[in-house]
Amino acid sequence: MTATHEKPEATMTGTQPETVQMNLIQAVTQALREELARDERVVLFGEDVGARGGVFLATQGLQSEFGAKRVFDTPLSEASIVGAAVGMAVRGMRPVAEIQFADYMGPGFDQIISQAAKIRYRSGGQFSAPLVIRTPSGGGVKGGHHHSQSPESYFTHTPGLKVVMPSTPYDAKGLLKAAIRSDDPVIYFEPKRLYRAAKGEVPTGDYIVELGKGVIRRAGTDLTLIGYGGVMPDVERAAEALAASGVQAEVIDLRSLVPWDKHLVLESVARTGRALLISEAPRISNFMGEVAYTVQREAFDALLAPVGQVAGFDTPYPYVQDKTYLPGVNRILREAAQLLSY
């Protein structure tokens, strides 16, 4: 597998920063630990976040390390969790609220879209809401209808929010640290099927991955594959399969959805002439529709085929048919073949 490894966007101690192999959830934990130690305004809270360390143990050990005033449990009320985070942020704190599953964000929806996203605008810049909402997202763990949804498009449609979804441990740490330091509210989706499956070297020093910057995971000349979050391992495996048949696919990981890296995408499509967009959210009103519009609008003359898309189906998420619902390697390869033969 050929991949580019981005350099840290912040200075780290030493010329050769020490790295440790971590999985994605360990990288999330480390980012939270470092930000709690760095900035006393940072607090973590949510359902079971304190004593237990969260349902996926992302905050395990942090309450004993930093105390119950900075890492604490909340009632089972997403509206209260988000509402408290907005109030804390407006008063100068840096709250990191966990919603136990992305599927549960509904009760806090009004606080997110009507309060957090708009407070800078409605106050004429007098107030801001520098908060982060962390939430496990997506399928692949047989969680069924209420534990496997990918609702990122709701939030990319809301002006005032930033939306992030990492796919590697390196990015999980760097993006989360950048999100906590952002002066805008950030929805930070964590693809739960990669929590322990995605592993990689992560610097032990301080660094950030700039929000709004994608990365080329694999260079290519014949086709651009664009994805983010939980689909990325399948996207990279599809690129490997294409390479075995003589097709060199370029692989882009968006990492940030709002803002997203239009320049990187358009530059790649201008070279390859073909774009295939992959995500696991339902196809209708999928965020990738925005990417498709931008590509056909601004790179139309370079296109050798219509923009292709592989997405989840427009149905509630099934309990057991994960492999059927999710965009796997075979679905990606079938759509890629159509674009290459157009």
From TrEMBL:
What keywords does the record list, in alphabetical order?
A: Oxidoreductase, Thiamine pyrophosphate
Q: Which cofactors does this protein require?
A: thiamine diphosphate
Tell me which EC number(s) this protein carries: 1.2.4.4
Q: Which CDD domains does the entry mention?
A: TPP_PYR_E1-PDHc-beta_like (cd07036)
- Residue ranges occupied by any Transketolase-like pyrimidine-binding domain in the UniProt entry: 22-197
Specify the domain of life of the species encoding this protein: Bacteria
Task: Report the transmembrane regions from the record.
Answer: none
| GO molecular function (one) | branched-chain 2-oxo acid dehydrogenase activity
Assembly information from the UniProt record = Heterotetramer of two alpha and two beta chains. Directly associated with ODBA in the E1 complex.
Protein name, per record: 3-methyl-2-oxobutanoate dehydrogenase (2-methylpropanoyl-transferring)
Q: Which organism is it from?
A: Deinococcus maricopensis (strain DSM 21211 / LMG 22137 / NRRL B-23946 / LB-34)
Q: What taxonomic ancestry is recorded?
A: Bacteria, Thermotogati, Deinococcota, Deinococci, Deinococcales
